[in-house]
Structure formats: C-alpha cells, structure tokens
Amino acid sequence: MPSCCEGRQKRREIESSLREMQEKLAAVGEAASDAILMTDNHFRITYWNPMAERVFGYPATYAQGQDLFRLVLAPEARAEFEHLFQKALFLGPEHSDGRTLELMGRSRHGRETPLEISLSSVLLGGRWHAVAVLRDITQRKAREQDRIEQLHFFQTVIEAIPQPLYYKDAEGRYLGCNGAFVDYLGIPKADLIGRTLRDPVPPGLAPTHYETDMEVMSQGRCLTLETEVPCADGSPRTTIESRAPFFDIEGRVVGIVGTLLDITDRKRNEMEKANLEIQLRQAHKLEAIGQLAAGIAHEINTPTQFIGDNTIFLRDAFKDILPFLEPQGLATLPALDLRYLIEEVPKAIDQTLDGVARVTRIVRAMKEFSHPGSESKVPVDLNQCIESTLIVSHNEWKYCAELVTDYDPDLPPVPCFPNEFNQVILNLVINAAHAIQEAKNQGSPDLKGMIRVSTQRIGNDVVIKVEDNGVGIPDAIRPRIFDPFFTTKPIGQGTGQGLAIVHNVIVEKHKGGLSLESEVGKGTTFIICLSL
Q1: DSSP E strand boundaries for 339-493
Q2: Which residues pair with 513 in a beta bridge?
Q3: Which helix (H) or strand (E) holds 531?
Q4: 291 and 243, same structural domain?
Q5: Which of 135, 148, 211, 487 could form a disulfide with 116 if both were Cys (CB 3.0 to 4.6 A apart)?
C-alpha cells in the first residue's frame, strides 16, 4: 500500500500534467482562428478562447460555468450535440470519423451565426470533457448561396437558349441538357443523363464522336463539325455541332459543352439559291444570245448578200463568155467587153472569198462563245476568248462606239471557266455600249463613243479592263450595282442581272478581283483580276 508521501507525489504529478495540458490548450486556443471551447459532461463551459469571445461577444470570465445551450446554442440543438458527444466518447480521443454539425449560434447581441462544429472528447481529472471547435461559416454559406443562385441562373440561361445544348463531364457522361436538346432529339432526359460515350446509343441519338470529344478535352480548344442527326420525327437533319471545353478554378478541363445548330433548311436554301443562280445565268445567257441573234444574222447577212450577188455576176459573165469559147464563136470575140470582165471578175472572186471568210469568222466566234462550260477550270487563251466575244457582239456596239483592243501578246494560258468568262466580257461590253448611248441621248449626240478592252500580265495576275466614255456611275449607287435585280434602266429594258452575274462569276466562282473606276460624265472602267 502506497504511503502518504507517495500519494501526494502522485497527485502533484497529475496536477502538473493537468496544468501543462491546460497551458498547451490555452496556447492553441490563443492562436486559433476558430472559436474553441470546452464543457464538462453536463455541458457547462470550462474553457473559452479569445476567438470565442470575438464571435459570441462574451468575455471568458462570464462564459465560464455557463450552460452552453443557454448561452450560445439553441436548446433544440442539445439532442444532436449530445449524440455527437456520446459518439466522440465511444470512439475515444484517438479516433474521429470527421463528422461535423452545422448549427445556428447566437451572439450576445442576438445576432444568429451559422456554425460548423467539430467535437472530440478529453479526460481531465477523471472526468470526460467535450472539446468543441466552432467555425463561423457565414461567408461560406453566402458563397454556397451564390453558387446555388449562379447554378439556377446558369440553368435558366441554358433553358432559354433556343439551340439544343448539352454538357458532359471529363468521362464523357451527359451531365445535363436543355429542353431544346430533348425536344430536338425526342429522347427523354432520363435516357440521356449519366450515359457515357461508350454506352449503346439509344434510338434517335446520333453516335457520339468519341475521338472529337477527347480531342476537345485533351487540347482544350473548341471544335466545330458538320454532323447528321436523326431528329424527333425520324428524318435526318444536318447540324453544325460546336464543342468547347469548360474548366475548373485551377484551369483543368473537367468537361465539354456542346451546341447544335440545324442547317438543313439553310443548306436546302443554298442549293436552291445555287440552282436559281445557274438558271438565272442560263436565262441571261439565252437572253443575250437572243439579243445577239438579230445582230449576228445581220452580220452574216451582209457578206452573204454580196457573195450571192457576186456569184450571180460570175454566173452571168460565164454565160456571156461561154459562146465565145466555142470554135465558131472566136469570130465574134471582138464584140465582147473583155476589159470589163478582166477587171470585175477578179474583184467578184475576192469579195466572195472575203465574205466567206467573214461568215466563217462569225460562225467560229459564235461557236467559241456558246461552247458548253466545263466543271473545272481549264487553261485558255483569254485574248482569243475576248476577241470571239467582241465579234459576236459587234452589232451591239458598232453603231454607237469605236472598239479598240490592246492585248498583251505574251499572255500565258489562264485557268478559268471560259464559257462564264465570255459571258462576263459580253455583259461588260454591252453595258459600256448602253452607257455611251445613254450619254448621246442625254445631250451629247455628237459624242464619239469609245470602248477599249485590254489585257495585261502583272506578276502572277492577269488584269482585264473594259473602258468606256459613257455617262459614268454616280457615287450613290456604286455600292448596289452588283446586287441582283438592281438596274437604273426603265422597266422592260433591263433585268438587273448583267453586273450581278459578272460579280458572281469573277469573285465567287473564279475567286478573282473585280473593281471599277468611274466619273460621272466621263466614263467607267471595270477592272478584272485573275490569278495564273
């Protein structure tokens, strides 16, 4: 049995150990950024650190011995607090399951504060005490509320977007989508959320481009592709699908957001527009050919007329000569006007040959002008193309202007669509002739009209110019002259397609340049630039 001295020694050691623990606890409590308090097993406060004073407004001297639930915690929180304390006692001070409580605390002035409480147990002086760390989570709750509101706002915005939209996590699982996406595909949201990229595709959902999603997430960049999607009614639809990565606060890619833009109708309209443009060009070409037909007929008729006249003359002359070629006719030879025949017959033959050449040249030019277009560019002699077009359009400008050509003799073959290029030159030349005639009609009847067509190589480009000294183009209408159906001519005298076709053929189809220089009252120059 231990002696009294040994008992006192043991008690002093316990008291010393207790003081040491309290000193350590006080040191920790002084430095802590959270409120720390201790209660006995009846939940009377035995320790109260400086942060607890600041949070609740009570000095430690007042808080000591007070009932925890009367001072800073609501009485209805007692049961949950006791349950957590009993669990801490059961686990012992060496263990913790990390469980915390969120309770409302109240300060000395009645202000309520949300608290996160961590609880553990400690044995002091043979009695179990509860050690509670109370953290003011007002700001955290505010941030959580902000996040909730932002999420709600985000979901509201997503639902308000008319285009189908979805978002996935980094594993490719659908996290959510808007109503437009569900309506467009005709798939219940429950069949979509949580589905991964490698899961079987439900009916109506297009196969997911796994590689594309992985590329978006691995490279952290947006990708756009054209896809075919079976929509709610089962019909195939063409969409532009854009996928973009989204990031966490540390800049890591945590998923993708995708949108669908249905372009089925747009593509159909574009095809219809393209077909309409082809039809309009064809109609304009037929109109131009019809317009040229009378002039071409006149151009051919003139040489044909004197070919016929000369042929009749040669026939009659031969009839006159034939009798004198018989032996008995030699006696009457002096009666024949040989001098006249010697002079006129060669002229008739030369005129006939010239007329045949002119007809041949017009027919060849017409053939070149109306040659069917090719599906791809071919190298062509632009000088020859232009010359053929000027020949077939001769009757359109010869009465109002003199036409001058200035061809670059060293021009190499130029890749182009010859049929469409011929149409461009025809439109510009006829346009120039009309501008000159309009100038004559507006008070300059004696104007000597001039149309100049030139070609020139500049570096890797070929420049074609069509110049006239007509009325010119006012500044106010220059931005509109290439618009389809825009015309300044009276109703019935123009369709407004000529310059629109020029722009479409040169800029859209040939990817070339088209510009103009013009001064009212002095004339206009259209400038075409094609790459070699």
Answers
A1: 378-380, 401-406, 414-416, 449-458, 461-468
A2: 529
A3: strand 523-531
A4: no
A5: 135
130 closest CA partner among 121, 118, 139 = 121
Token output for 41: 């097993």
* 141 in a structural domain: no
Same domain, 91 and 195: no
Q: What total number of domains does the chain contain?
A: 4
pLDDT tier, 7 (very low <50, low <70, confident <90, very high otherwise): low
Instruction: Report the alpha-carbon distance of residue 167 to residue 180 in Å, rounded.
Output: 13
pLDDT average, residue stretch 271-283: 64
Whether residue 83 is contained in a domain is answered as: yes
Q: How far is CA 511 from CA 110, 493, 499, 508, 531, in A?
A: 78, 30, 16, 5, 9
Task: State residue 197's pLDDT score.
Answer: 47
List Cβ neighbours of 306 (8 Å cut-off, separation of 6 or more). 351, 352, 355
Mean pLDDT of the chain: 76
Residues 388 and 529 in one domain: yes
Is 158 part of a structural domain of the chain? yes
Residue 221: the pLDDT is 77
Q: pLDDT at position 95, please? A: 47
- pLDDT > 70? residue 372: no
Q: How many residues does the chain have?
A: 532
* End residue of a domain, out of 97, 112, 136: 136
> Domain end: 351, 370, 389, which one?
370
Task: Measure the CA–CA gap between 233 and 177, rounded to whole angstroms.
Answer: 20
Q: 388 and 459: one domain?
A: yes
DSSP per residue over 290-304, as a string? HHHHHHHHHHHHHHH
Would you state the pLDDT for residue 90? 58
Whether 507 and 527 have beta carbons less than 8 Å apart is answered as no
What count of Cα atoms within 13 Å lies in the side-chain half-sphere of residue 173? Answer: 8
Residue 491 lies in domain: 379-532
Q: Per the domain annotation, does 209 fall within a domain? A: yes
Neighbours of 258 (CB within 10 A): 22
Find all residues with CB under 8 Å of 208, minimum gap 6, and list them: 172, 197, 201
Do 398 and 532 fall within a single domain?
Answer: yes
With residue 241 as reference, give the H or E element that holds it.
strand 236-247
- Note whether 152 and 256 are same-domain residues: yes
Q: What is d(CA 319, CA 325) in angstroms, rounded to the nearest whole number?
A: 10
pTM for the complete prediction? Answer: 0.41
pLDDT band at residue 468 under the 50/70/90 scheme? very high
The two three-digit tokens of residue 320, written as one number: 């006159």
Residue 243 backbone phi and psi in degrees, to 5: -125, 130
For residue 26, the domain's CATH number is 3.30.450.20
Which neighbouring-strand residues pair with 168?
Answer: 174, 256
Does 522 have pLDDT greater than 60? yes
